[in-house]
Description:
InterPro entries: GH131_N. The protein is an all-beta fold. It has a single domain, classed as Jelly Rolls. Helices cover 3% and strands 36% of the residues. A hairpin with a 4-residue loop joins β12 (200-207) and β13. The structure holds 2-acetamido-2-deoxy-beta-D-glucopyranose (NAG) (4 copies).
Amino acid sequence: MAGRLSLVFLCSALPLLVASQQxxxxxxxxxxxxxxxxxxxxxxxxxxxDNVFGQNLTLSQVVQLQSNLSSLFDDRTVPVEVTIxxxxxxxxxxxxxxxxxxRAELLIASNNGTDASTTGVKTLHFSxxxxxxxxxxxxxxxxxxxxxxxxxxxxxxxxxxxxxxxxNTPDPDTLQLFGNVNSNPVQTLFSTPFTAGVFHNFAVTxxxxxxxxxxxxxxxxxxxxxxxxxxxxxxxxxxxxxxxLLKKGLNGGDDIVHNGEQEAGINEGIIYGGIFEEDSSTGxxxxxx
Length: 289
Ligand SMILES: *[C@@H]1O[C@H](CO)[C@@H](O)[C@H](O)[C@H]1NC(C)=O
Ligand SMILES: *[C@@H]1O[C@H](CO)[C@@H](O)[C@H](O)[C@H]1NC(C)=O
Ligand SMILES: *[C@@H]1O[C@H](CO)[C@@H](O)[C@H](O)[C@H]1NC(C)=O
Ligand SMILES: *[C@@H]1O[C@H](CO)[C@@H](O)[C@H](O)[C@H]1NC(C)=O
């Protein structure tokens, strides 16, 4: 053997019949190939090094770079797995220990809660994939991607999987994108089986003026396809986009943040690729690279 062969299957740019646009970027969360795990611990202009992860962990302990994977919009950029374990207990302050959750999420460095990523018309892109070595426990509810308002009172859009608390979940092995969780009833914008072994690609167009959300989706290297029209959904309140696992505990009553029960021995993760946000105020939406 002439040395170690490392194959990365890229989704090449599609020249034919598919809108392959270059829209203006609001932020780019695609991980440059020169990043190592330790890069996540210091200011790096891609992800916030300080949040959100366990009080006694560092972000470099949480992330696993997947240099032999590539998602639809990765272009010499590297998918990154976000992991949780028993130590993934976030403490926003010394007296607020979120014992009911196990969580680790990447935040975009420029997305401070009041920046332009939550104004105008923007399209959020991300791809995500299971890791067969770190399966989730579908008895629990997980938030995998969400926008949390700047006053922390709601999630205007949230991608979940597992058994959703307080509602019937016919098949917990499903990706379900919900609208604003403070609406009654909460609107299911889109759902699809969380098939293993393939990247699930999402684009979500958020109109912060008209208060609508439109969902695009595809798998693997296929171009995104619109799954909905622009649906009424209250995306007001600005805030921050989270990419990672927020695992909710069971039997937490009216304080799941602190009282939810979590079993020991957690070793779980989800792989993220192609995170970016583009300006869609002129109608520009990238459907493929
Ligand atoms: C991908 O890379 C990771 C980390 O180097 C390795 O553990 C894994 O076996 C690789 N997977 C494949 C399919 O080559
Ligand atoms: C972090 O470590 C300290 C010292 O061991 C411990 O007292 C504390 O409970 C830990 N915090 C969490 C959230 O596990
Ligand atoms: C958030 O970012 C915007 C855009 O860069 C900036 O104008 C604003 O001052 C920042 N806010 C805070 C609290 O840092
Ligand atoms: C999954 O979660 C349930 C509820 O917390 C727990 O009883 C069960 O042991 C977990 N399964 C695994 C494989 O960890």
